[in-house]
């Protein structure tokens, strides 16, 4: 009886280990935590259930403003101006394009409340994030670095 129980526990543990390894192997190269260029925030990039990529703020160097947690005060939607910056989704809807490119997404800048079209390029421990209006030639690229 004890032998069967041990085998079942071992089998369950092995199954859990294999499933975690499989899940880890399936993670995309950008599914990590990244420092923004100024290193004032960390953004966790993850794949949504729609197979698109998103990024949310998971750490702020200065999380408080006037002794209270920072909120999205520059959001053009007045109803969203009390949303906390921590946990704010700032990257939306990216689709993988080739081996290192991600396109068709948007980036939200909580410093000015504006949303820009965006594309990203993965380069090892760096991620080039290019926000633009209209054409990608009319934009700005920032370099994010791996934080994890």
Folded structure, characterized:
The protein is α+β, with helices and mostly antiparallel strands and 148 residues long. It has one domain: Lipocalin. Helices cover 17% and strands 44% of the residues. Strands 1-2-3-6-7-8-9-10 form an eight-stranded antiparallel beta barrel. The chain has a two-stranded antiparallel sheet with strand order 4-5. β2 and β3 form a beta hairpin. It is globular, with a radius of gyration of 20 Å.
Task: Provide a quick synopsis of the model.
The protein is an alpha+beta fold and 148 residues long.
CA-atom Rg in angstroms: 20 Å
Listing every helix as H and every strand as E from the N terminus to the C terminus, the arrangement reads HEEEEEEEEEE
Count structural domains: 1
Low-pLDDT windows of residues? 13-19
Placed side by side, the strands forming the largest sheet appear as 1-2-3-6-7-8-9-10
How are the SSEs placed, and which strands pair?
Blueprint: H1 2-26, E1 33-35, E2 41-47, E3 53-60, E4 64-65, E5 68-69, E6 89-97, E7 101-109, E8 114-123, E9 126-132, E10 139-146
Antiparallel strand pairs: 1-2, 1-10, 2-3, 3-6, 4-5, 6-7, 7-8, 8-9, 9-10
What structural keywords apply?
148 residues; alpha+beta; Lipocalin; eight-stranded antiparallel beta barrel; two-stranded antiparallel sheet; 1 helix; 17% helix; globular
């Amino acid at each position: 009886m004890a032998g069967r129980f041990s085998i079942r526990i071992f089998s369950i543990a092995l199954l859990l280990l294999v499933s975690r390894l499989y899940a880890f192997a399936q993670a995309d190269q950008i599914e990590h935590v990244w420092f923004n260029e100024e290193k004032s925030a960390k953004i966790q990039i993850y794949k949504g259930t729609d197979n698109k990529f998103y990024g949310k703020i998971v750490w702020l160097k200065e999380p408080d403003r006037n002794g209270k947690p920072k909120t999205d005060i520059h959001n053009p939607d007045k109803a969203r101006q009390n949303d906390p910056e921590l946990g704010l989704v700032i990257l939306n809807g990216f689709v993988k394009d080739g081996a290192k490119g991600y396109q068709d997404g948007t980036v939200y800048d909580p410093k000015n409340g504006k949303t820009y079209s965006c594309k990203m390029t993965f380069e090892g421990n760096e991620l080039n994030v290019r926000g633009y209006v209209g054409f990608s030639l009319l934009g700005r690229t920032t370099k994010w670095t791996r934080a994890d």
